[in-house]
Amino acid sequence: MFITPAYAQSAAGGGGDVFGILVPLLLIMPIWYFLLIRPQQKQRKAHLEKITNIRRGDQIVTGGGIVGKVTKIIDGDVEVEMEVSDGTKMRVVRAMIADVRSKGEPVKDKK
Prior knowledge:
Elements: H1 5-9, H2 18-52, E1 59-62, E2 67-74, E3 79-85, E4 88-93, E5 97-102
Antiparallel strand pairs: 1-2, 1-5, 2-3, 3-4
């Protein structure tokens, strides 16, 4: 009644081209993996390896930007005691260590 027959007949159907949608998505997935996901995994793995190999005498940087030298590993490798300046020691959770600046030789035990 309100719609003319010419407009009613020229209405397009709802069926689209499935390949026109799937092909770009399938091409984007490998690109996304190689440009974003894989480099992040490599970076995370390298950082974890650095953190697990910390020993006495290493110079480290915490997530807050504090630089110090490792003096002791505490609580079964969960915490690290670091010396910030002469006589000033801090306990830091190993997960909060951002970087290992230099590998030092282990400090000898004072017994």
